[in-house]
Amino acid sequence: MDRDRFVEGHRPIVEAARSHPGCLDLSISPDPIESGRVNNFECWESQEALDAFRAVAPRPSASVEIRDAQVLKHDVSHTGPPFDWRHRPEEAALAGRVTARRGRFGEPAPATTWPNETGTKVPGRPVRRQVRRTAGTTPHRAHS
């Protein structure tokens, strides 16, 4: 399947990005609902860190036609918990354990890159990019 080749072909990029200075997280993964969709999530400490990685990033090892793409960049000035936990202390305790992780089970996040239950500011202005790619539709230029 093209989607699986696309995801596997971008594995070297994901590995390189995750070890690059300034990368808080990067994931390129198949969507569990839409069979032709690939989700790309990137979180960088700054635009400069993202630009530095782009200058040295490896090329994908598989070439797959992208028939539709939606690329959105979000400039984030603050991160924090998704809910106000002050009125639900039992869930706040759980949230503290969950948000201490970086999206990969068992791997602690660096203390300065992920909020605790009270909400902490991440140094700089993290850059988050979300990309949605879908197979089987008309090609068009992605917006950034």
From TrEMBL:
Residue ranges constituting the ABM domain according to the UniProt record: 4-54
Keyword terms, alphabetized: Monooxygenase, Oxidoreductase
Region (Disordered): 102-144
Chain ranges passing through the membrane: none
InterPro entries: ABM_dom, Dimeric_a/b-barrel
Entry GO MF terms: monooxygenase activity
Pfam assignment, any one: ABM
SUPFAM superfamilies: Dimeric alpha+beta barrel
Protein name listed in UniProt: Antibiotic biosynthesis monooxygenase
Organism encoding this protein: Streptomyces pristinaespiralis (strain ATCC 25486 / DSM 40338 / CBS 914.69 / JCM 4507 / KCC S-0507 / NBRC 13074 / NRRL 2958 / 5647)
